[in-house]
């Protein structure tokens, strides 16, 4: 982890953003959070979003995070690899994967693990950043994730915010959906619904402003454009053997 990223994690702005993310997840998943028997936060990171979501939902949530040093709130946290989930088959009623897919080394295997773990009727809430988002969210450098790895590393070094751009693997909309489908998951795209109903909960002022502007477009046009231009997408995943 670079010094720049470490400073971001300790800032008041980062903590406020975690609370806003938890509120957004709760707004989208409130009914499922209330009804689910077992809820797991995949790639829970610091644990701050998980803790805030627990307070909002009034229920315990188990977090899974690979990097022990990254964890700030260790309550109900397991240190484990998302590519080898330490859970029984068909045991998770609601999985939360909030901006974590780009950090897994093998997206196909991750989706395969999720399919194995989802209980009958279970779902995964997935928030996924776009490779072609104008602002790369980890280092806050425009277009950083657009470039081949050597070019991105060069831009990162020039910025003084890090030495190597590695361990981050953003994809386009089609790549995410295709990988999930290959592993037996169907993704329902909630991005337009979230945009229309939850713009006020978006993390950045710019995002909220763009969201309000996008809502003025005709719905069909907006939904098509979101696949290409949205900096992030919201999905609900289910096993492909369920209606």
Task: List the keywords.
243 residues, alpha/beta, seven-stranded mixed beta sheet, 9 helices, Rossmann fold, single chain
Topology:
Elements: H1 3-9, H2 12-35, E1 39-42, H3 48-57, E2 62-65, E3 77-79, E4 92-98, H4 107-117, E5 118-129, H5 149-159, H6 173-182, E6 185-189, H7 191-198, H8 205-214, H9 219-229, E7 232-239
Parallel strand pairs: 1-2, 1-4, 2-3, 4-5
Antiparallel strand pairs: 5-7, 6-7
Helix pairs in contact: 2-3, 4-6
Give your account of this protein's structure.
This protein is an alpha/beta fold. The protein has a single domain, classed as Rossmann fold (3-Layer(aba) Sandwich). It has nine helices and seven strands, in the order ααβαβββαβααβαααβ. It has helices at residues 3-9, 12-35, 48-57, 107-117, 149-159, 173-182, 191-198, 205-214, 219-229, and strands at 39-42, 62-65, 77-79, 92-98, 118-129, 185-189, 232-239. A seven-stranded mixed sheet has the order 3-2-1-4-5-7-6, sandwiched between helices. Helix 4 (107-117) packs across helix 6. The protein is globular. The relative contact order is 0.14.
């Amino acid at each position: 982890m670079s010094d720049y990223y470490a400073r971001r994690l300790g800032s008041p702005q980062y903590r406020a953003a975690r609370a806003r993310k938890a509120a957004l997840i709760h707004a989208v998943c409130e009914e499922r959070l209330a009804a689910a028997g077992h809820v797991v936060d995949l790639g829970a990171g610091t644990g701050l979003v998980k803790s805030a979501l627990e307070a909002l939902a009034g229920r315990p949530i188990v977090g899974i995070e690979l990097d022990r040093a990254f964890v700030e709130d260790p309550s109900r946290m397991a240190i484990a690899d998302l590519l080898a989930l330490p859970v029984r088959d068909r045991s998770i009623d609601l999985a939360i994967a909030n901006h974590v897919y780009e950090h897994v080394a093998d997206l196909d295997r991750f989706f395969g693990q999720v399919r194995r773990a989802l209980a009958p009727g279970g779902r995964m809430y997935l928030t996924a950043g776009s490779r072609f988002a104008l602002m790369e969210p980890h280092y806050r450098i425009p277009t950083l994730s657009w470039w081949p790895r050597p070019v991105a590393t060069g831009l990162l070094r020039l910025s003084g915010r890090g030495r190597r751009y590695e361990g981050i693997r953003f994809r386009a909309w089609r790549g995410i959906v295709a990988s999930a489908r290959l592993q037996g998951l169907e993704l329902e795209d909630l991005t337009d619904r979230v945009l229309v109903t939850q713009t006020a909960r978006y993390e950045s002022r710019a995002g909220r402003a763009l969201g309000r502007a996008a809502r003025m477009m005709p719905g069909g046009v907006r939904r098509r454009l979101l696949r290409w231009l949205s900096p992030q997408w919201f999905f609900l995943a289910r096993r492909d053997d369920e209606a």
